[in-house]
Amino acid sequence: MDLQSGKFYWPTTITNKPTYPPLEEDVSCDVLIIGGGSSGAQCAYYLSQDNLNVVVVDKREIGLGSTSTNTALIQYSGDKMFFELAQTFGEDRATRHLKLCEQAINEIEKAAKELPLDCHFTRRDSLYFASSLEDIEKIDREYNLLKKHDFNVVYFDENKVKKHYPFYAPAAIYSLNDAELNPLAFTYGLLEKAESNGVRVYSNTEVSKKKIAPDFVQFVTKEQKTIKAKHVIIAAGYEGLEFKKEKNADITSSYAIISNPVEEFWYNRTLIWETDRPYFYMRTTHDNRIIFGGLDESTSFVDRRDSMLLHKRDQLVKEFNKFFPNIHFKPEFYLAAFYGGTHDGMPILGLYDDHPNCYFLYGYGDNGTVYNMVLAKIIRDLIVQGANPNLDLYIQTRSLR
Ligand SMILES: Cc1cc2nc3c(=O)[nH]c(=O)nc-3n(C[C@H](O)[C@H](O)[C@H](O)COP(=O)(O)OP(=O)(O)OC[C@H]3O[C@@H](n4cnc5c(N)ncnc54)[C@H](O)[C@@H]3O)c2cc1C
Questions:
Q1: Residue 66 domain flag
Q2: Is 39 in the pocket of ligand 1 (CB under 6 A)?
Q3: Is 325 inside any structural domain?
Q4: Of 154, 218, 287, 375, which is most buried, counting CB atoms within 10 Å of its CB?
């Protein structure tokens, strides 16, 4: 899959890019992780704490899949609003999911602090605003449900928004304690940490064939080296769908721009997004840039996605200036990327009868980094302990309300 194109920002932030060799011999392991992006690294991080023999392979250089274009707003509230998830899955399950995401941000913070590399994890508040008068009702419902379940949120009416931001919004939810990070540095840091605990990492190693037996799974690389594993985690991002189609998953195209370093920001450098779908979103970076994204398209065709890139870049600058006319936004970096979501708004952990001992990690959705942390922990428990009490939320066969 041609995941993305443009001029990417995160790779330019890494001064000593780690290098990993290709696999040049047959190997056996307890766990094979296919994918050295952030989701594979998150799995490796957890599993490396458990005295298991773990191998990570990636067909590209490590981290150069969607992880390189992840804008990395780290939030628990997602594309499908809490009250909508409660309608689909019931309030108890929706609440459990949101609480797991909130905990996952704490886990990301804990991991980030332990890493040998600074991934600039920074706590930030979020502003989620109503894009129109009609959406005030959505904001009200969302706020009431969040408050009922003790999430740390504050209601902003029109005046309160006006006090802190130069743009108009008729209502908003101000959430405390979300976060931002550098997703590529996070991935490199997690893998370095996992490697120091014995995990073996190979780049430029494409897994192309497999044999499934009752007690092991065998993958073969393009160079005909075999990897025999007791368990296999398919953490191949949106390319996981090339291993196994999942009908609940949906691929679209997304666009984002990253500015020159600027001197002026907005209130608390909040993560900002809105109720419109598709929505605009923004955050700042450690080196004082602004990331602004949106104008998503429903296409999953590369040519169509990329043909719009330069136009989208220019449009996004104009849209940003509607929010902040006084900030001069020069788009030094810009990208078009495939972007995966799910129809029901929850990430998926695929466990299929025809793939015994395989765990398909489809952490799809706007909070992919957070979902990946939740799913990585569940997969670790399934492998190490045989069970996890939250599997019912994410397994592809989950029931709706
Ligand atoms: C534009 C954009 C903005 C986003 N914004 C956010 C955000 O603000 N917050 C958030 O939390 N999430 C966001 N996401 C989602 C986030 O990027 C993803 O959830 C996350 O990066 C996916 O990581 P991954 O490791 O699953 O995928 P990838 O980084 O794509 O890693 C998968 C790896 O698997 C490898 N692979 C695939 N097939 C094979 C094979 N056959 N053999 C060997 N290796 C293989 C690939 O080479 C790749 O490196 C965004 C995504 C995009 C595209």
A1: no
A2: yes
A3: yes
A4: 375
By mean pLDDT, which of 73-77, 209-213, 278-282 is the weakest?
209-213
- 315 is a domain residue: yes
> Which protein residue's CA is at the shortest distance from atom 15 of ligand 1?
368
Tally of structural domains, the chain: 1
pTM of the model: 0.97
Q: What does the alpha-carbon distance between residue 146 and residue 133 come to, in Å, rounded to a whole number?
A: 21
Mean pLDDT of the chain: 96
Alpha-carbon distances of 142 from 135, 145, 174, 275, rounded to whole Å:
11, 5, 12, 11
State which ligand 1 atom lies nearest to the alpha carbon of 35: 34
Secondary structure (DSSP) of 133-186: GGGHHHHHHHHHHHHHTT--EEEEEHHHHHHH-SS--SEEEEEEEEEE--HHHH
Which two structure tokens, joined as six digits, stand for 355?
Answer: 């793939």
The amino acid present at 19, given as its one-letter code, is T
* pLDDT greater than 80 at residue 60: yes
The Cα 114–Cα 121 span in angstroms is 11
Q: Is 340 in the pocket of ligand 1 (CB under 6 A)?
A: no
Q: What is the amino acid identity at position 265? A: F
The mean per-residue pLDDT over the stretch 284-290 comes to 98
Report the separation in Å between the CA atom of 375 and the middle of ligand 1, taken as the mean of its atom positions.
14
369 Cβ below 6 A of ligand 1: yes
Q: Report percent pLDDT > 90 for the chain.
A: 96
206 in contact with ligand 1, CB cutoff 6 A? yes
Segment 132-183, tens digit of pLDDT: 999 999 999 999 999 999 999 999 999 999 999 999 999 999 999 999 999 9
Average pLDDT for 246-264: 96
As a whole number of angstroms, the distance between CA 227 and CA 4 comes to 29
Angstrom distance (rounded) from CA 368 to CA 341:
9
Residue 316 lies in a domain: yes
Closest atom of ligand 1 to 361 CA is: 26
Range of the domain at 306: 123-178+248-341
